[in-house]
Amino acid sequence: METISSATWQALQLLLSGDTALWEIILISFRVSILAILLATPPALLMAFMLAFGQFPGRRLLIAIVNTALAIPAVVIGLTLYLLLSRSGPLGEWRLLFTQTAMVLGQIALAFPLLVAMAHTALQAADRRAWETARMLGASRLRAVWTLMYEVRFGLMSALLASFGRIIAEVGASMMLGGNILHYTRNIPTAIALETSKGEFAQGIALGLVLLLLAFALNLLLHYFQGKGQIAA
Amino acid sequence: MRKLTSALWLSTCLVLPVFADEQKPANPIIKMATTTSTQDSGLLTQILPNFQKKTGYEVQVTAVGTGKALKLGENGDVDVVLVHARADEDKFVAAGFGDQRYSVMYNDFIFVGPEEDPAKVKATKTTTDALKQIAATQSPFVSRGDDSGTHKMEKKLWDQAGVKPAGEWYREAGQGMGEVLQMSGELKAYTLTDRGTWLATMDKSPLKIVLEGDKTLLNPYGIIAVSQKRYPDTNHAGAQALIDWMISAEGQQAISDFKINGQSLFTPSADPAEVKPATEPAKTN
Amino acid sequence: MNELIFHQLSKHYGKRCLFTELTLPLIAGQCLLLTGKNGAGKSTLMRILAGLDKPDQGEIQADGKRYSWRAYRPQLQRQILYLHQQPYLFEGSVWDNLAYALTRGLPRSEQHQQIEAIADWAGLTALLMNPAKRLSGGEAQRLAMARALLRKPRALLLDEPTANMDQAARLLTLEMLEDLKRQGLRLMVASHDPDWFQAVTNQHLAL
């Protein structure tokens, strides 16, 4: 019991004192995850749009695949990419394993199905009249897509935030693909795993607190956007 | 729950009186924290059943890094620790968390690296020269970076070589030995490993042994019972029984009989001075 | 030469026939009133004319040529605009909604002039900066009409334009329709309450 309170106290001190090692890890986490979300979002939105409004053979199958992909554990995605990127794997030439790029790829793979599924739901709720009106008023397809997405932007924002929350707290794929290398691929979740295995609970709790605060902030934002979305609908 | 357990034990004793010794321990569960090397190599899985059959104890093993294993002991979460980090073990005892450290065995560390051997480590004879060469040529080196026994050993060796490893070529992975070996294979890097993990994974690794046999690479294991004074509710009798068995002639023989690919992984090294005369081995309460 | 005639339109929903072999001229400066019960297919017919839905068969004759529905869609769709029963207004102000309909790349002064002129015509000048989603039923309908007119269509199809409106708003809408006829626009109005539109109606089609 003594451990929890004293470790938490030390954790707060570490955070507030601007401990560089700690903040470096936090920075790496955010850099990798934000990049992953930025890269995953455009194709995910496009795909969600096609699933919601397109009519093509295999659409239902694709929706089923996306929903199944949601249930794939992160470590499995990590392992698959590991085998692809490994020196003996088909993409081994690229020498990407144990780099931030590999982590970004893993997080994109994790975020993508969630982004598509949530954006699909948001777009399905969009008013078909919005699309028809935009097209009748002379909007190009691209502009009409943009208009429609703007109309359901709160739902799409929720999708983004939820996906970000998923990847920034994910340990399995990051550990496997990044390798938890200090100053380079050590992010918050892999650092927590390491500090715990070392018995350095204060560091672990400090990083846990960062994730907790982040989750809280994301939830507040989600709540805000979902509320907005309901008013707009 | 306790009723159920004792009922189970009772029935075991009735049905299999051969296996259960005449003394039935009051608290048959011993919780041991140890390093991944003893568990992953398969040593404990092979030797512990002998102890369990003989005494009726059941050993529950938690395999973690040395740092965490000691921490579990400090918190009284386990009854006994089996680790390899001499300085920390002595500190652990000095701080009153454990009663006494017993030598059990040692294994050795080796340096592995890419076949091409860019730092020409194979030509060196001592760890000091090897590490100096690696640093001088800035050849990739993956460190465990997880405060484990192996990591502590590695840091000690860098100290002895008078090199402060830093830079792009020196990667602190913060993962287990198996993962670090994999990573070193991928990155064509050197690393320090215990022989057990190496033997278990060498078939799949592109790496080769580049240095072995230096005296500084010996890795002694110690076993310590958690202090009963500090944590009265630990299974101290069980812990002591396990220690007594590990350092007994029988336990030591079991350790040296454990082999992978025909090679002994651990060399028994109990100090005769620490072994109690085998009068009352596992008396409880 | 300026004719716009739909020929032999047919549409079925499953086994139910909404209309078959329908010939429908849209005449400049005239208003066609479309009546029928709910579910008779008024909206479906209008959506087909506007190119939003597909008929089972049918052709269109325009400017001396005949097009299949497929060929017609890309060519003429944007000249025949359909206003939903509850028009969809985009997020943003009344001004933003009007600007949406303007051809991109128009000089700024030209944009302003067109928006102000049409807003004045629809009685929306005072509301230009108001959020579009908060307009009343009548204001929303007028904005939708004004927005559609900025596209300079040949025909305007209005689906129940006076639903959810008070007396004054309905009268204002009728006046605007009268004015559009004078400008030579082809109008089509669907309503299950035909009495209201007697004054502006030239032809009557009951489904």
Automatic annotation (TrEMBL), chain A:
Gene3D superfamilies in the record: MetI-like
Cellular location(s): Cell membrane
Segments crossing the lipid bilayer: 25-49, 61-84, 104-123, 144-169, 201-222
Membrane topology: Multi-pass membrane protein
Keywords in alphabetical order: Membrane, Transmembrane, Transmembrane helix, Transport
GO biological process: transmembrane transport
Any single Pfam family the record assigns to this protein: BPD_transp_1
Keyword Transcription regulation set for record: no
Cellular component aspect of the GO annotation: plasma membrane
Limits of the ABC transmembrane type-1 domain: 26-222
UniProt xrefs under InterPro entries: ABC_perm_TupB-like (IPR049783), MetI-like (IPR000515), MetI-like_sf (IPR035906)
Protein family membership: Belongs to the binding-protein-dependent transport system permease family.
Protein name stated in the entry: Tungstate transport system permease protein
Organism: Thiothrix eikelboomii
UniProtKB/TrEMBL annotation, chain B:
Plastid recorded as keyword: no
InterPro entries: ABC-Tungstate_binding, PBP_domain
Domain of life: Bacteria
Keywords: Signal
Boundaries of every PBP domain copy: 27-250
Signal peptide coordinates: 1-20
Annotated Pfam families: PBP_like_2
Name this protein carries in UniProt: Tungstate transport system substrate-binding protein
Natural source organism: Thiothrix eikelboomii
Species classification: Bacteria, Pseudomonadati, Pseudomonadota, Gammaproteobacteria, Thiotrichales
Automatic annotation (TrEMBL), chain C:
SMART domains registered for this protein in UniProt: AAA
Keyword Amino-acid biosynthesis found: no
Transmembrane regions: none
Key words of the record: ATP-binding, Nucleotide-binding, Transport
UniProt keyword annotation of Transcription regulation present: no
Signal peptide: none
Molecular function (Gene Ontology), one example: ATP hydrolysis activity
InterPro entries associated with the record: AAA+_ATPase (IPR003593), ABC_transporter-like_ATP-bd (IPR003439), ABC_transporter-like_CS (IPR017871), ABC_transpr_CbiO/EcfA_su (IPR015856), ECF_ABC_transporter_ATP-bd (IPR050095), P-loop_NTPase (IPR027417)
Gene3D superfamilies, sorted: P-loop containing nucleotide triphosphate hydrolases
Gene Ontology annotations for the cellular component aspect, listed alphabetically: ATP-binding cassette (ABC) transporter complex
Family the entry assigns: Belongs to the ABC transporter superfamily.
Protein name: Tungstate transport system ATP-binding protein
Record organism: Thiothrix eikelboomii
